[in-house]
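Following the same procedure, sequence and fold were stored together, as reproduced here.

>
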Amino acid sequence: MKSVWLMLALGLTLAGMDHASARDSQPAHTPADSRAGEDPYLWLEDIHGARPMAWVKAENAVTAKRFLDNAEFTKTRDGILAVLDSDARIPEVSRMGGYLYNFWRDKAHPRGIWRRTTLAEYRKADPQWDVLLDLDALNKTEGKRWVFMGVQCLKPKYERCLISLSPDGGDAVNVREFDIPDRSFVKGGFDLPVAKTDASWIDDDTIYVGTDFGPGTMTESSYPRIVKEWKRGTPLSAATTVYAGEPTDLAVGAMHDRTPGFERDFVTVAKDFFHNELYQRNGEKLTRVEVPTDAIADAHREWLLVQTRSAWTVGGTTYPSGALLAAKYDDFMAGQRHFSVLFKPDAHTSLASYSWTRHHVILDVLDDVKSRLELLTPPASTATSGTWTRAAMTGAPAMSTTSVVDTDPDHSDEYWLDVTGFLTPSSLERGVLGSVPAETIKQEPAFFDASSFVVSQHFVSSKDGTRVPYFEIAPKGIKPDGSNRTLLYGYGGFEISLLPHYSGSIGRAWLQRGGVYVIANIRGGGEYGPRWHQAALKANRPRAYEDFAAVARDLIRRGVTSPKHLGAEGGSNGGLLVGNMLTTYPQLFGAISCEVPLLDMKRYTHLSAGASWIAEYGNPDTADWNFIKTFSPYQNVRKDGHYPPVLFYTTTSDDRVGPAQARKMAAKMQAMGHKNVWFYENLEGGHGAGADNRQAALMHALAYDFLWDQLK
């Protein structure tokens, strides 16, 4: 049961000259505190300070003048925005009771509307929607810039909801109670001030809430340390503490399962990103669900499902890492340890996810990073033991991703599938297991002509001999002469997989120009399950960078591109990835776009939510620094280094990674005299870098135009 915290030439010479002259007018860098002798750019960590913001605005103006103030950029941005605002997009829905709910942004509703409709209406080409909340109207009334961050509605009526609103697109939210029949926020209802809050329903008049209750109530990772039970009509200060974690924990949360006949309460203590303790709550008593802390446990009706991250020996049997196991929940809590194996990985397969319907489990399996679905049916609920039956769910096209996007596990065997591929616009399919075959309900239009492109999958040996896959989307019949502008994208962290998907934005902004687009499935991700992720943890982090460099070399070896025509792009942990390409493998690339990145790995645990990632990277305040320093771009950039042009972009409102790292890296490289170092900071949008479609289109267009320009 996952916590929500667990649940991115001449023209160049002239540009460099203009860039440098604009900076020369900036105030001299003076020490911010006693550590400034070690790091003279600490002053840029003052996120909203007058001096740092003056630097940001000056840098933005320089970058805008070079890359944004021209007709080509306008064309790229408008092309992306047309995709993001298109009325022909599939309105993604989730079922709550008898309605399908959707949050929608377009040109007329830049901040978005929350709405619902019926299945019969949704099937129509132009369904009628019942608008429940208009964010733009709300912002006009309140004089705010709220960004919709999600909603939780109370089963089974789904009439009262907890809506999360961010003031700037960051993770900190205001949580308010909303009444659907009245189409309004509840006067005197649950209302929590802006903080990194986790709230969920218990019953009509009670919620679980983890938030900033005052000094010492948040973890060092900046998430709730204490979860309380809060009764309607009482002050938040009167809420009863359910569990108080340690400051070093990642986060603490609680939830109530309202499934009739299986009502249970759980407390989750996230020790770090990959280790959790799950407790069942009975009044004041907490009983540990005794699974390994690195496993993921999920209680559903009479069943307990466990996903292993490491080998687990229990009941005389050893189950491998990456397996999915099932046992009767009550039997397990009583001490029995008999499991059925629902999934067991091999060298080519991993479990991407699973989804319950009322009577079945759908497995989403990756086979060399390509999807296939399996249907499992448990033995009858009255049986004390028995065999799960298994069947294939067919129909997924080659080189595609087929994923379950919604089910109705409380009431039916309804399921919704998203089917997508690099050149295949997404389709939304609906079926009911055993009665209604899957049928296409919605089809996304083609936003670019895919007929002139071809998708291929390749494998390359990394430095240590590991076989690493990558996908290539290229114009048909390209010449292997090294002249093709190629964009290599990667992430490689937190067990997140990069799968085939359709992107009208990439199609319009990169492929239609004649570019080649490549996705590298490097270690650190989840493409081959926990083992693929764990192979690049902490001291082994450089394996991810070796994998990415191996893909780059293979593209060059095959004649797809050459270093001066090869660009790299990555965001967040992927920003750390391409930051290491910049400092360690600069000879392989002609330009790099480094987005909302981690870069200063010496101080990352002291910036924004950085302490939450110690399990991924290690703790630089300990002996771990001996290996962390080998992949910290901010410490490894050198004045005498030869680096490709680089763009750093970030957002002021990013309260997850924060803008300081990109600011400091850009400032440091500029001060060293490196040319073609560019910086841009959006003022809102959080870690996603855009609070609305126009902002998102601007940031993506900036990256694509920068890379296209530099790789010519």
The radius of gyration is 25 Å.
